[in-house]
Structures are given as C-alpha cells and as structure tokens.
Amino acid sequence: MNISKKLSQLKSEIGKVIIGKDEVVEMIFIALINDGHILLESVPGTGKTQLAKSFAKTINGLFKRIQFTPDLLPSDVTGIQFFHPKHQEFQLRIGPVMTNILLADEINRATPRTQSSLLEVMEERQVTIDGETISLPTPFIVIATQNPIESQQGTFALPEAQMDRFFMQIKLDYPTFEEEKKMMQTHRTNSPFSRLNQIFTLDEITQIKEEVKNIHISDEVEDYILSIVQETRQHEDIQMGVSPRGTLALMRCAQGRAFINNRTYVTPQDVKDVAVYMLAHRLVLTLEGSLKKNNVQVMDSILKNVAVPVEAGANK
After folding, report:
1. CATH label of the domain that carries residue 252
2. Who wins on pLDDT, 82 or 49?
C-alpha cells in the first residue's frame, strides 16, 4: 500500500467538503491509526461536524454525534438497561458510543459527571452498563469540540486529567479569502458530502495501526523527545509539564508522521512538526506565565530552545 498516495486521495475527497485543511486531515489520520482522541477547537460554523462526518465516510466507518448540554446524562452517552413492557424483561440499549468516530460536540457544555462518563470509553474502549462490559468497535476515536469564545459562559472547563487523555488538540482557523471563495462555489448548488468516495476500509486502517508501530526511532530522536518533555517540566512559565502519557503520545504521533511520508524511521523534524499539536494542551501555565503567553506560544519557545540533533533517524 502506497500510504502517501492514498492519503493524498483522502485529502482530495475531504477537500470537496472542507477546503484548505490538508494538514488537519493528516493529523486526524495520524490520531486514527494511533487510536488517539482529538480535541477540536474553533468558533461555530467552521465545519467541525462536516469534517468528522466526511472522515468517517471516506474510511467506511460508523459516525455518531452527541450534542453536549448541561442536562445531558451519563446514560445518554454510554447507554442504559431499560424495562421492555412487552417482553417483561430488562434489555440493554447501548448509547451512541458504539461507533468508529464519535463527535462529542461542545463537550465543555456538559456537567463534569457527564464529561467523566467518556473517560472509560476513551481510555478502555469499552462501556460498562449495570455490570455488563461491552467492547467498542475498532477503530474508535472521540473527536470532541469546544468553542473558545464561550469558555466562561455556562460551560464546565475540562480538568487537566481529562485534557491529558486527548491525544492531540487541533485548532481550526477561519478559511483564507480564496479558500472561502472556493467553498462558496463548491457549495453553491448542493452539498458535496453525498459525492464523497471511500478511500480506506476499516481492515486497512487496522493493518496500518500495526505497521506504524514498527517505525524505527533512533536513540538521538528518543533523547530529543525526552529533552522537549523535560523542558516543559522545568520551564519558568509552566506549573505542570507534560506527563509520561504525553511523552508516549508524542513518540507515536512522530511515528505516524514518518509513516504517512513513506519512511521507516522518525526524524527530529517529524517530532518538531507535531509537538505543538501533541503537547500544548497538556501544559498548565503559572498565573504569571499565562499573562504573558498562551500554551502554544510557550510550546513554540521550548521547541526553539531545545537543541535539534543531526538527522540520523535511519541509522540503527
């Protein structure tokens, strides 16, 4: 399988619906082949739902969406045992988590209790309802969205422990002038979503998930990853740095970056390209630090300060 060619086809298909987001599509694909969950942040109307639906269609996967609201219950997410009057017995009804791609829309609008109902699902890829455990399909990823402009208006900020469970955070920017013009022309008559073609099968995704684990990482690149992580733990503007979970996530994402570029080894540039996506949301800044910079700016400064090793990734 020529992964670069097929990924190019995937970006072309999703580009029919979401214009100018090739880098975002690449990152979501890397998350998918690493069983990683995504926190998608953007203002309303930038195509977050369409992006998730389009991605599911191009891999022939199931798609479910949950609109998170303050009155949403944990059972609305995972499912319930309900009494069927006709059969006079309790029956299991699994919630929308039984899917391949789950869109948790505006996750920060739900109460902490409902937010936490996703934790077992995200970490264990299973749900437990009244003592009965059900495994979820594979692949399975959660794409959670939140609106940054309403972070203090009737919302419940995700705690640091839950933020750390997201493999990466992606921010969707407004389209450029030319991208938005192309979008208007594309959507003028009808939605191009119905014309999307399947590029990958679920079996191919499962096969890729195993292959990406074999991408080689040299000692120099491992040390580079650890140097970045260690710097987050001793930086003057950071109260709490990256956890070991974040270290492993950065390693796996760098492997994914190398894989989609048809390489059998990770380079320092792979690490540098994905580090902000993987680590910025895991940082807790000090009060003084947060007044000067945001998480992304602090992460950028760390990447500039940590010495980059000579690219010897192919050497074993």
Report:
1. 1.10.8.80
2. 49
Instruction: Give the CA-trace dihedral at 209, 211, 212, 218, to 10 degrees.
Output: 150
66-110 tens-digit pLDDT: 999 999 999 999 998 877 787 777 788 889 999 999 999 999 999
Domain match, 161 and 229 both: no
Task: Kindly state the tokens that stand for 189.
Answer: 């008559």
Residue 205 maps to a domain: no
Amino acid at 170: I
H-only helix segments in 15-85: 22-33, 48-58, 74-78
Angle of helix 3-14 relative to helix 244-260, nearest 10 degrees, comes to 100
Statement to judge: residues 133 and 175 lie in one domain: yes
Domain-located, residue 316: no
More confident residue, 245 or 43: 245
Share of the chain above pLDDT 90, in %: 67
Total count of domains within the chain: 2
Nearest to 278, CA basis, from 77, 75, 37, 57: 37
The pTM score is 0.91
Cβ–Cβ contacts within 10 Å for residue 120, how many? Answer: 15
pLDDT (average), residues 184-201 = 87
Range of the domain at 157: 3-189
**Do 171 and 24 share a domain, yes or no?**
yes
